[in-house]
Amino acid sequence: MNQHTPRPDGGIAVPDKADLDAIAAGASKIGFDIVDVAGFLDDVEAHARGQVGALRTVTESASAIETANSAMRVAIDRVNRLSEETRLKMAGTAEALRASDRQNQQVAGWVSAVDNRMQAVVTQLDAVTRTNDQITSIARQVNLLAINAKIEAVRAGDDGRGFGVVADAIKQLSQETGAAAQSITGTVAGLEQVISVLCNEATEIASLARAVIENSAVTETALTELDDRVRDSAVTTAGMADAAGRVSDAVELFRPAFEGIAGAAQRTSGGVGDARDRVHGLIDQSEALVQRAVRIGGAGEDSHFIEALLGFSARVCEAFEDGIDSGAITEAALFDHRYDPIPGTDPPQLIAPFTAFTDRVLPPIQEEALRFDPRVVFCAAVDRNGYLPTHNRKFSQPQGSDPVWNTANCRNRRLFDDRVGLKAGRNQQPFLLQVYRRDMGGGSFKLMKDLSAPIRARGRHWGGLRFAYHA
């Protein structure tokens, strides 16, 4: 253990230089550990937020599933009702079709019978026509006989007068018979035409009736198949309704579990957030402890960085004062914190009224500081808002098409308003030593130290000079 220098009055011993160095080193070590824990808590909180979001999404999805499932059950019930109504209507339609088929068969039978009877009538009319033709022929023959008898009666004179009267009567009868036969022939011909038309129509009707019967059979077959399918659909929808019911029951079972998990994750996230905030407060306290230890004489590996930084920051302050004195820049322009976006930059770069001036005066100082120690990563001035106008040359490359490459190599004219950047720009103590985790990509982090000292011009606080180096 280090010895203490005793007080002349015999009071409490005053810690010597070694003790102060140990306090400074211990405070720095505590700061490292706290920053590491804070980074871990940041990661845990990020994961917890992601889990809370995922669980919220799952819970919302479960609600959506339940809502959709309820709607599906309503739709299935409606389909079942419609299917049953359709089946009943189809059953009635099929029965009506069967009755119509029976009636059509009766009509077809009646039409066939009428057709047969018409054919019999035609046959009888043919017989009548033949008989009438015979009567006509006989009438002509009788008429000829009457004419001959009349001639013979004339030749016989008075003796044949009575015979002549008979001959005249026979002639008249044959003529009337011929006229009647002629009239019958005309009537029969008319009947034959009407009956022929009726026969043709009866044949067509019979054909149509047979076609209707055939179509009815096809339709009945189709209706029977459709009825079977409707029944199958009813069975299927009943199964779907049962499955939907089981889904609803399952959702109801796991919803409370998800809600409980989500609530626990939310509480965990909130607790981690609170712990992180408290750890960030410890970071501030550890940084203040390091500064106090150094101010009262403690030293360590950071001492020569602090001394060098104070020298470089003094030179920056001097360059700013000289710029105002020489008219290279006005005080108003130096403290004008308007930032205009540079079009087409990704990540966005900005330009301020003083950027051209810092591009001229800062590189010589910052490049020299970069060469001060191999552990130095960068040296750059930032204003009170974290705006970094002029970086080291290796970080001031022209932007390309790859935003990832630009982020690593084009860090000038950028706004770094994170916790470390803002504290460095707004600190007005002689120096500020911060510890932070630098993201190296791929989930890898490296602890870095950020040492900063205030920059002033014309008695006004402009920002700070940052000195970042490996821990």
From TrEMBL:
Signal peptide annotation: none
Pfam families assigned: MCPsignal (PF00015)
GO molecular function, one term: transmembrane signaling receptor activity
UniProt keyword list: Chemotaxis, Transducer
Entry GO terms, CC: plasma membrane
GO aspect biological process, one term: signal transduction
Domain Methyl-accepting transducer: 26-262
Family as reported in the entry's similarity comment: Belongs to the methyl-accepting chemotaxis (MCP) protein family.
Name of the protein described by the UniProt record: Chemotaxis protein
UniProt source species: Pelagovum pacificum
